[in-house]
Design goal:
Distance between the termini: 44 Å
Mean pLDDT: 80
Number of strands: 0
Strand content: under 5%
Radius of gyration: 18 Å
Largest sheet: none
Order of helices and strands: HHHHHHHHHHH
Shape: elongated
């Protein structure tokens, strides 16, 4: 298969494999969908190739800094990707990874800043949706009046096409953290119905949602 790909496609595929190998278990279902969408994108235009190659090298620096537990270098690389190569998917990927590193370090504020950048600036809808969903998760988990208000405003926006079931599920989470059980149950059921009609969603995503449904009283 590799022989059939041009150098640019090989580089993109290698990057996706690197991202998946390191962060495939980061979030159930969502990254699977996002990467499946991304992997089907058409090749870069000629004028983008040099930028993509340079961005790829910087992204690799970011990944290497993680393996060495050099958080400051990880953040610096992510921010350089945003500033210099914001139009490439590497910038979105780098920001998502940096957000994970920040969350692992209990720095929710920094994680939110990376996720907000991706949600607003990512050139690819799948990465934008992933950032929005992760941001919603953080805001809902915080459970404060301010964070829930911010989550509510975000949930009122139109979901990225293909991610609607996960958007509905997050609304259920929003109700649940406020102990509004009937409302949460309704949203979870809606999400499950939408998810079952879309084969793009893996079984583990449905399994996680089923756990939530059981927690609020079952089907």
């Amino acid at each position: 298969i590799g022989m059939a790909l041009d150098p640019e496609e090989q580089e993109t595929l290698a990057t996706l494999k690197s991202f998946w190998a390191r962060y495939g278990n980061y979030t159930t279902g969502v990254i699977t969908v996002a990467l499946l969408v991304y992997s089907g994108m058409s090749a870069w235009k000629w004028y983008q190739r040099d930028q993509a190659a340079d961005a790829g090298k910087l992204y690799e620096t970011l990944i290497n800094s993680i393996s060495k537990n050099e958080k400051d270098k990880t953040y610096l690389a992510a921010e350089d990707l945003q500033k210099k190569y914001g139009g490439t998917s590497y910038a979105a990927m780098g920001s998502l990874v940096a957000a994970k590193v920040a969350m692992d370090s209990n720095d929710a504020s920094k994680a939110q800043s990376y996720l907000k950048w991706t949600a607003n600036q990512a050139s690819d809808d799948s990465f934008r949706a992933l950032a929005q969903l992760r941001l919603l998760g953080i805001l809902i988990d915080q459970g404060t009046e301010a964070s829930l208000k911010e989550a509510d405003q975000l949930l009122k926006e139109k979901a990225v096409k293909g991610f609607e079931p996960l958007w509905i599920e997050r609304r259920g989470d929003w109700y649940l953290v406020q102990t509004k059980i009937p409302e949460a149950r309704t949203e979870y059921h809606k999400a499950m119905k939408a998810m079952q009609s879309d084969r793009a969603f893996p079984e583990d995503a449905r399994g996680l949602l089923k756990v939530k449904i059981d927690a609020v009283g079952g089907m």
